[in-house]
Amino acid sequence: MKFGKVDNPEAIDFTIPKTHKDTLALLDNFEKPEKPSVYVGCAKWNRADLKGFYPRGTKDELEYYSKQFNSIELNATFYRNFPAQQFEKWRSKTPDNFKFFPKLGQEISHWKRLNGVEEVVNSYLYNFSNLQEKLGTIFLQMHANFGPKNFNALQNFVESWPKETPLAVEVRHKDWFVDKAVAEDFFQLLEEHNIANVIVDTAGRRDMMHMRLTNNEAFIRYVGANHPTDYDRLNDWINKLKEWVDAGLKNIHFFIHQNLEKESPLLASHFIKKFNSELKLDLLLPNNNDSQTTQIDLF
What we know:
By secondary structure, the protein is α/β, with parallel strands linked by helices. 35% of the residues lie in helices and 14% in strands. The protein has one domain: TIM Barrel, CATH 3.20.20. Strand 2, helix 3 (84-93) and strand 3 (99-102) form a beta-alpha-beta unit.
């Protein structure tokens, strides 16, 4: 993932901001869960991106990937609307506890910019539905030039979204976060409709670390910089998520990207192992084959 990439990550202040006061007020409405529901994964499963992750001789990448992680942020659906049969096939290949978190297509978010998209949205929703119980939260990522002047289009889309289908929204235009009044209108829109507010942790866009949850779901897209600080940043996230779980957070969906994606499985393994230890969880811990474990030397 190139979004927010910088040439000098060592110069960036990666300190996680304090939790937004309205996040704490929101979570106060919920009882602390005995155990949170946690899904951690990468953004892709193909061998070309995750070099060194698959053992030699692996025939089916998704089958292997889904035995190492319990979820995938399915970015492929941003570029094309796969037919229902493809989702049925993916569902049949994966374990019972595996979930897909697919992105809505660029035709909806980037080309039509949420205008006149009812037919294509319904097509995506039908195709996604063939994942059945393995369908996680769907997410909508808007173009970076989609600013607050388009608020009405976003509001209409959110209000027409089927209430029974979990959705997360990511906006990237800086004006959503600069003006407190604009930010508040956006946050309230999502909160009123029980839609998750995506948090993006990437070097060049620290403004997207708004730390504002709008429902009982933390949907986090973490972008490493292929730099030793990546591990410290993940450790900080574990502390933050523990704080939120203690406050009442139940659902954690954490997806790990890299500027060079081949490092993503290593970072995810580190995160899962430490998260299991800190929160007394039993998340599946990926195997690190010999070729993968050497990847850390590439930093």
